[in-house]
Specification:
By secondary structure, this protein is mostly helical. The protein is about 80% helix and about 0% strand. The protein has 3 helices and no strands. Helix 1 runs antiparallel to helix 2 and helix 2 packs antiparallel against helix 3. The longest helix has about 70 residues. The radius of gyration is 35 Å and the shape is rod-shaped.
Amino acid sequence: MMFDPINEINNYKRELNFIRRNIKPAKEMIFSLAKMESELITESTYVHFKELQDNISQASDSSDSYREILSDQLNIYHVTISSKLNDIMKFLTVFSVVFIPLTFIAGIYGTNFNNVPKLHYQYSYYIMWGVMLVVAFSMLIYFRRKKWL
């Protein structure tokens, strides 16, 4: 089975949202119990409530931290995918830019007109190949100097 980070991140986010939804009411209940004054609640129970308050606050802070981490991971994943897509688009663009003029030259000299200049010249085939190679290599050199390759 293929590793799919986006689904894994979304599963973690779903679990984290479930935990956060359950922590919030528990936190409110514990804080209200700790403030409540009743003769049924002894002083030692308030110590446990204080400890519960600390634990639930720590759990709430941790869930917020994990939520931020997951959001950061999702952003990193999207940036990585976008960067790969940009590299692919750059390659395809350079490929197209090199081959469009070559296709144009081949299209002109591949026509069936009788009055195409240099068509009946003995070396016209080799000249066409030379022009095409010069155009292609000069474009590749230009792209390399611009650091697009």
